[in-house]
Amino acid sequence: MHGDLMRHLAPPAAMGMGALEKRALAALYVARLEGHNMTLSELAEALGLPRDACEELVRDLASRGLVELSEGPDREPACELTDEGRERIKVVMTGGVFDILHVGHLATLEAAKRLGDVLVVVVARDETVRRLKGREPLNNERNRLKLVRALKPVDAALLGDPEDFYKTVELIRPDVIALGYDQKHDEAEIEAELARRGLSARVVRLDVRVEGVKSSKILAKLMEEL
Q1: Each residue of 95-149: pLDDT tens digit?
Q2: Which domain holds residue 18?
Q3: Angle 187-196/165-172 helices, nearest 10 degrees?
Q4: Cα dihedral angle (101, 163, 181, 186), rounded to 10 degrees?
Q5: Which helix (H) or strand (E) is 93 found in, with range?
Q6: What is the pTM of this model?
Q7: Domain boundary among 86, 120, 154
Q8: Which of 43, 100, 139, 153 has CB atoms 3.0–4.6 Å from 109's, for a disulfide?
């Protein structure tokens, strides 16, 4: 995953220090979401920085309570995002099936990414697809997840909970939940359930579409040609 992070980051020379700090915090957030901490060397690689420059950056962040340093594998310093550090970045969450990837998906993900510093994409489980769409997915969940992770706007992707959408929200704790223009979700219902669970996130309906490009239309055309 660290190689994916490096691919999504702009070169340090193109960013101000504030932007570089946010990218460091974002990388550490993704690592925490995946259940591990990044070593100083891994973070330096992800940011495209020399190790000594990354160490200087991390120690400055640690002095402000945004990052904690500990001893990692082989005595290599490990970096951990603190709760205060998490508050300094805006996390956007979106989701979908992504069974047939097309430019409409890409446009939606690019729009979602512009709403914050980190974009986390939730990919529907196979059983969720069967339940909601009444059909087998064309690609299994692991392959769909792998494809979504490879997309440039995506900082992290994970499989959703097959039974409770909000368990995934509780894990990610996004600041913004971005819905596609045609997703069958009710913003008011989502906000009410978030409040009931003690979660705080802004729900946004993205008005982004590519005319004539829609998964159902592509699938129908494929079926006609078989």
Answers
A1: 999 988 888 899 999 999 999 999 999 999 999 999 988 888 889 999 999 999 9
A2: 2-86
A3: 70
A4: 180
A5: strand 91-96
A6: 0.84
A7: 86
A8: 153
In terms of C-beta density within 10 A (0-12 exposed, 13-18 middle, 19 or more buried), how is residue 144 classed? buried
Question: Which CATH number do you get for residue 114?
Answer: 3.40.50.620
Whether residues 145 and 34 fall in one domain? no
Specify the length of the chain in residues: 226
The helix-helix angle for 17-33 and 40-47 (nearest 10°) equals: 120
Same domain for 151 and 114: yes
Q: What are the structure tokens assigned to 145, written together?
A: 């997840």
Integer angstrom CA distances of residue 6 from 3, 48, 98, 134? 5, 7, 24, 38
User: Angle formed by the axes of helices 51-63 and 17-33, to 10°?
Assistant: 80
Residues 107 and 171 in one domain: yes
Whether residue 49 is found in the same domain as residue 127: no
Q: Which residue has the tokens 């512009």?
A: 114
Question: Are residues 20 and 125 both part of a single domain?
Answer: no
**Angle at the Cα of 197 from the Cα atoms of 196 and 203, rounded to 5 degrees:** 80
- How many Cβ atoms are within 10 Å of 159's Cβ, its own excluded? 16
Q: How far is CA 13 from CA 10, 19, 20, 28, 222, in A?
A: 8, 11, 9, 21, 46
Cα separation, 89 vs 134, in Å, equals: 38
